[in-house]
Amino acid sequence: DALAAAVLRAAALVGGGGRALEAAGRALAALGAALWVLDGFDALGVAGAEALSQWRAAAPQVTFLVTARAPLGLSDERVLRLDPLPESDALALLLDRRALHAGDRAPGPAEHTALAALARALEGVPLALELAAARLRATSAEALLTELRAGVAALAGGPGDVAPRHRSMDAAVSASWARLTPDLRAALTALGVFRGGFTRVAAAAVLGGAPAEASAQVDALVDHSLVRVAWAPTPRLHVLEVVRGYVVRAGAPGVLAAARAAHATHFAGLYEAAGAQATDAAGLRALADEAENLSAALAWAAALDTPEGAGLTAALALGLDPLLTIRGPGEVLERVLTTAWSAHERHGAPPALAARLADAIGRHAINRGEVPRALEWLNRAVALARAEGDDAFVGRALDHQACAEMFRRPGDAPPLLDEALARLRRAGDRAGEGRALSNLGICRHAEGRVDEARALLEEALVLLRGAGDALGAANTWAVLGALYHAAPTQDLARACYDAALATYREVGNLRRVAAVTGNRALVEQEAGDADAAAALYAEALETARRVDARLIGGVFAGYLGTLEQSRGRRLEARLRYREAIRVADEAGDPRFGAYFRACLATCEAADGRFEPAGALLTAAAERGEGLGDAMLRCALAVCELVSEAGAGREARSDALRALPGRSLPGRESYDVRIAAGLVAAVLGAGEPVAPPRALTGRATPTLRIARDGCGFRAPDGTLADVGRRVAARRLLQRLATERERCPGRALSPDVLFEAGWPGDKSRRTAARNRVHVTLAALRQLGLREVLLRQGPGYLLDPAVPIEVVEALGAPDN
Prior knowledge:
Blueprint: H1 2-10, H2 20-31, E1 34-38, H3 45-58, E2 62-66, H4 87-102, H5 109-121, H6 126-135, H7 141-150, H8 169-178, H9 182-191, H10 200-207, H11 211-223, E3 228-230, E4 236-238, H12 241-250, H13 253-268, H14 271-277, H15 281-289, H16 291-304, H17 307-327, H18 330-347, H19 351-368, H20 371-388, H21 391-408, H22 413-427, H23 430-446, H24 450-466, H25 470-486, H26 490-507, H27 510-527, H28 530-546, H29 550-566, H30 570-587, H31 590-606, H32 610-624, H33 630-639, H34 649-658, H35 670-683, E5 703-706, E6 711-713, E7 719-721, H36 726-741, H37 749-756, H38 764-783, E8 787-790, E9 793-796, E10 802-805
Helix pairs in contact: 1-2, 2-3, 4-5, 4-6, 5-7, 8-12, 9-11, 9-12, 9-13, 10-11, 10-13, 13-16, 13-17, 14-17, 16-17, 17-18, 17-19, 18-19, 19-20, 19-21, 20-21, 21-22, 21-23, 22-23, 23-24, 23-25, 24-25, 25-26, 25-27, 26-27, 27-28, 27-29, 28-29, 29-30, 29-31, 30-31, 31-32, 31-33, 31-35, 32-33, ...
């Protein structure tokens, strides 16, 4: 009757007493086609729906636009669901209402950022945005945002002439809460434990009872606009934060406690699948969808402070571990693992979970560059895993232990990997076997067994791809890139690194992005593109800093030091070397601590500071002793030659000639080549000298070049005719002349262009392109291993004997 009277008043008519409903229907029909807006209609409940049904029959030409929190259930109604505002619209509304309440002063950059964050925190709910804007009359956006995040903000402040349900968010939600049945109130209270959305399967696990009943409750709450559905990228249900905050306060405490326990138990079950999910981008996205729920469940479980809670806490930490390991942040993972281990120490998690937890802490310590701590935890993990007798996990734990040993004592890693492989093969763990083979390939390369290393890595790649382990395959691509770079085969190295980077960027593994970007910088450094190398080093260091990858950052700070030294910036080089040494020492990594001490020694020797250089070389040798790293031994031996730099020109020449005479397998090591370049520059008394290409004890065949440049016989006996290529002949003659006069000095592209195309006035870019193309042709004819690039220039390898002859004879036997 009250509704009918209101309609009659709006139509400027008077009702008929107790027959007001029929009178309103007649009035509506008499007024003809019209649109009637009935706001807040859900307050009338079933009676309102019945009245509307009568009016629709009496006045079919009338359209009713009804606002309510749930559909009316009429047969001919059309439902338009109003979702929260998109983020841009929410911010626009907040800015508009802020101007109304707080003046039209334009917000500054910091305030604008806070307002955008406030709009996101309010999830696009228009009433919440209106009320927040009203609060901005007396507080700042930053302060209100802080209150909201702490759960203490009361969004209230509607003017007295608005409906009571619109004067605060609690009032708005309370009106909906009051219309729910007791079982729906309990269901909404239980669903309030979720964070970041949930699936119907998870909802059924928390609500309990029959799945069909749980699904019906969820549907009813969706109809009441208290649970909403988001469809991208996959269907997920959400309880708005303003609703969740209310029901957690208003719901029955017993219901809430039971829901939290069920929530923790459900999400603890995800840890078994988490490791498998974290092998590709799709799995990581699915895991990331539940990150907030895993974190919330961890808090519920830890608060139990019981043996059952300790087991749940460990499982939940292990569920978060792969996601946080790959995407970070590292400090959050540190807190998660510490919380779980503390619960285990108090109440004792199941032994299998404790072993995996110790393994996760050890792996995390490796990533943070804390090698001694990593070994402590990984040793504990292996011991616990052996006691459990789980071959697959013992194998993976041994593989991780070997990774840590590679930093401390590389020679101790292969036996661990051999046992790991045996156990993983016995357990049929193909992905684990592939990762262990990849690590064994790293060890074999450090030992100088390059062909064996390559074969192991290629086998690992097949296994990992077959197992669907995209991240493991990316790791192997990165190692293969280092192997090809060491060969050196720069194009293949770039291709492998780029393949790895594509996967790492797709899954958001910034730690590995930093490492591989640093390796790409090394490739460009050796290719002579110092500017590109410097930019890549800067990117690698910044990315490592963002994810707290201290050891990665320290290593590439050291390699950046080698680049700075090669460019004559020895002060900057010293600073970088000392940073690398400090990080390596703190991390317990003697390998890089030794290498960068030796590099720093070459820098000191370049300035005539031979006493500190000698002390650094001694310290480097002590740290490198017993590591079993053949490439490091060769690099240190090369660096020791700087001791001859102050002994006169003849002694320097003898030492320079001795560089190719190293008997250690340094040819396929960029560490050795970089060291040799630094040493050669010192021995050449400031003149740039190309790094030696052969660091074995074998005699090097001679390169013979015709005096008129018409041809050459390569060291391998290949006879090449250059007679018809005029520019190529001139370049070959110029390179040969420079090689005879000043071995080790590179010629710039500009100098070579003048030699090949004398008097030509082409633009510089075009000229350099012609030089590069012609030199590439000479390489293809047989000079690939002899014609070197150093910095921006080119030269014939000073380590290869050369003879300029009138006529090319038969090859050497």
